[in-house]
Amino acid sequence: MRALPATVLAVCGLIASACGGTEPGGAAAGQAPSTVQETGKASVQDGPTETATAKQAPPGAKPLAGKIIVIDPGHNGANYRHPAEINRKVNVLTQMKECDTTGTATKSGYSEAAFTWDVSNRMAKILEQRGATVKLTRSSNDGVGPCIDKRAAIGNKARADAAISVHGDGSDNPSHRGFHVILPKKINGPVDKVVGASTKLGIDVRDAYLKGTGIPYSNYVGTKALNFRNDIGGLNLSTVPKVLVECGNMRNAVDAAKFQDPKFRQRIALALANGMQHYLEP
What does pTM read for this prediction? Predict the structure, then answer.
């Protein structure tokens, strides 16, 4: 989710609908299918089917009935058009940080914002089919924000049983690839009481993601794909178990090719949903 330089963003505004980076996320033209709404409508799938996964319940069962899940699709498609608004500083308790960023993009111009929007909607549909109540932190990919503090507040207000922020990383080193999960640290703040639960959530998501996608652990950040940080506003301000997953490096050719494939994005969504379910089931 590393933001791109302003000079690059100016070019991106001409060649793509949005440019997406790491703080230290469609279809044609980099956008999610128009039929995908806040609760998700996509159904294309590759690899193991839902019924073939170890976590899939029998037909008609609702293993996540009564559970509330908040999904935070990183960034937003029009962020790059509103630098003053997204650069506004907000308090994340350990420091002041930008309200939001543009995110990164693949070298061909597929934006992180479009990627996270599409994956999040696909994941929402899977989780709803399993009985969960799902809320997304943004309702489209052509708006601005919301700010990172508001994204955390949405999960808190919903009293979510679990929350996940979906991103794609933006390291420009071409050898950097793989995924990692960012977890909160204790900061003498509201997140402290859920750090333990968030760690368990993060491990469940990591394990399911590796199994479901085959994308390897990050070779450039974290330990065994786990990265504990105290500077991520969406985590610092959360009072519910929450993690941030960097699904891979969008600037790496191998990861980028997978992310630009709708069928593989369905695999990503299914793997993330399985991780959430594993955490939420007794």
Answer: 0.81
